[in-house]
Amino acid sequence: MTDKKEYGWLPLSKATVRTGIPLSGIPGEPGRHCPMHTALALAKQLGNISTLVVGTAECGYYSRYVMTEQRGRNGELHYVYELDANEVVFGCRKGLMEAICEMDREGAKLILLILTCVPALIGEDMEAVMQELNGKIAAKIFFIDGAHFKYNGYLTGFLDTYRQLGEVYNGLESRESIHIENGQVNFLGSLRGAEALALKCALTEAGYEILEVNHQDIIGKMAKIREGSLTILQDPNQGQLAKALKKPEISLCRSFLAEDIRADYRTLKEMTIPEGKAEKEFQLNSYELLKEKEEKARKELKGIPFIITVQELLALPIAAYLTALGMEPKLLGVESFSQEDCIYRDRILNEGYDPYLVTITEEKNLKEWGKDYPLFSIGHSTAVLESRMINNPQVQKIFALVGYERSIFLLDRLMELAKEKEKGGEADGLI
Questions:
Q1: Per CATH, is 184-272 categorized as 3.30.1380?
Q2: What is the model's pTM?
Q3: Which long-range CB contacts under 8 A does 335-339 form with residues at least 24 apart?
């Protein structure tokens, strides 16, 4: 196969935590939206968050593509602080503080400040601004650095907003003991599917209250989250929020292999069932079924090349899982490479594969490169036929599930695509 080095894509073997991820398109092609857009979109979804975009007139103009109205449905304020020529050179601290005080007088309860490129370049000290306003206003303030030149695209807008929101409502420090006393368990993500229901019932019967937290009601539950003694992470987008809460945490979202999921559940059981009490097994009987599916997948999916264009925070865990079952990763769409990804990088490399990491912006290069491979795609791609693709709505449905059930649905769908491929049709996976 031709190695398309001219595209400048990053081989997984070269990826480190500080490595920038190249764009899939040529330099002249536009990239993704900046973090400002997704921070605003998340604030709009969460509700009860007022926003203040700090930047140039351009930033203010484009912010209105997301926040079309100055007032939200619950009375939130969505304003822009536009820097003048003097502030671009000497800073905007004084005027910005006056604007925040004005929002406080107008009734804003929680204000998200979004710094864009210019205030980030001039080094405006937002921590100092917040410290000076502490005790002078009733509103809570948090901020994110949304400078586009620092990031590939929009994902940081989600992650940093969740992280800083968690800092606003920061809970107690983690306990040293592994066991958690009966109380409240925070579940970050949606409890959907039969397995999620079984998990919920098991914890409830063990004496725990379950607080389900998703983006639709997170603000209303933030104060309640502080009362939790354990965090279970199912939505990877809320990972930074989980860390900021400083609670003991179990992540269920990054495990796909039956043995890994089983290990997660055993850890959860150890943390929630006191010693000396009868240890009632979680009613999660899908372990053997997933083991059977994995053995079947090793036969039916072996050697099939694939790309991943969605679920960026889980792209490497998914790829490591499918690689262990014999599939061949070719390209993974991500914006960044984190410390948590290192274990999955090593698993993929140990299987003898070195896929590209790219931030997918446009797909002209992708279609040209992919002509050499009969690709499957997890997520939409114009470079792959619909008959070889798990489309975005299907991906969202699968990844809303928990544990064994999620992996079973993923493998079932991939094996369905493999059977359709065997029936004949196009010579490869490209349009």
A1: no
A2: 0.82
A3: 335/21, 335/32, 335/151, 335/152, 335/153, 335/154, 335/155, 335/156, 335/359, 336/21, 336/151, 336/152, 336/155, 336/156, 337/15, 337/16, 337/17, 337/19, 337/21, 338/17, 339/17
